[in-house]
């Protein structure tokens, strides 16, 4: 640990950014390995090799840590893909969701956060914010499809994006069936077909 100022008082990219990155990495690792119930601020500080008082002062609670982790994940998520067709764009979206959910660390992390969100309001709020940011990132693909005449005027872009990932999350959380690329492609195709038929208008 160097002798710089406390987190929040130095430029981004300095000690503040390094401490945040280390703490969030330790939080994500613990969530993925052991679940929400095993998150402990003192243990996270130890794993991140930062002072316990720094973690308590900056994040305060386990839910504060999880909220910041989700914010960071939303900020780090890949930008949308623009292929020139709604099917191409939504297929890219579905495959990105599928890769995230099948990643050994990320998939376990999302399962833990979703489980925690069912009984912890602050975690639920952070999870909702995460998904709202991701939906906002991809919604312009649908608006472009409306502008091109691929889907009807008045189609709700947010609902179309939700429709792509919904079957993938359902399969992950309820079925135990492997989440393969064919499932991602089907989710995109179904969302496009429904949007063209006016289901989201």
From TrEMBL:
This is TetR/AcrR family transcriptional regulator. Signal peptide: none annotated. Pfam families: TetR_C_11, TetR_N. Residues 40-59 bind DNA. SUPFAM superfamilies: Homeodomain-like (SSF46689), Tetracyclin repressor-like, C-terminal domain (SSF48498). Keywords: DNA-binding, Transcription, Transcription regulation. InterPro entries: Homeodomain-like_sf, HTH-type_TetR-like_transc_reg, HTH_TetR, Tet_transcr_reg_TetR-rel_C_sf, TetR_C. It comes from Streptomyces botrytidirepellens. GO terms for molecular function: DNA-binding transcription factor activity; transcription cis-regulatory region binding. Residues 17-77 form the HTH tetR-type domain.
């Amino acid at each position: 640990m160097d002798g710089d100022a406390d987190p929040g008082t130095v430029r981004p990219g300095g000690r503040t950014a390094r401490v945040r990155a280390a703490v969030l990495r330790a939080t994500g690792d613990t969530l993925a390995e052991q679940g929400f119930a095993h998150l402990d601020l003192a243990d996270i500080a130890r794993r991140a090799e930062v002072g316990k008082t720094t973690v308590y002062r900056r994040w305060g609670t386990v839910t504060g840590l999880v909220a910041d982790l989700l914010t960071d994940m939303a900020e780090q998520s890949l930008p949308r893909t623009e292929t020139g067709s709604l099917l191409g764009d939504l297929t890219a979206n579905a495959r990105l969701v599928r890769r995230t959910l099948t990643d050994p660390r990320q998939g376990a992390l999302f399962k833990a956060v979703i489980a925690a969100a069912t009984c912890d309001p602050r975690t639920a709020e952070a999870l909702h914010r995460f998904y709202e940011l991701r939906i906002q990132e991809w919604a312009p693909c649908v608006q472009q499809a409306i502008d091109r005449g691929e889907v009807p005027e008045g189609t709700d872009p947010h609902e179309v994006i939700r429709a792509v990932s919904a079957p993938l999350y359902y399969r992950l959380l309820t079925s135990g069936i492997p989440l393969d690329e064919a499932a991602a492609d089907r989710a995109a195709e179904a969302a496009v077909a429904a949007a063209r038929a006016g289901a989201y208008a």
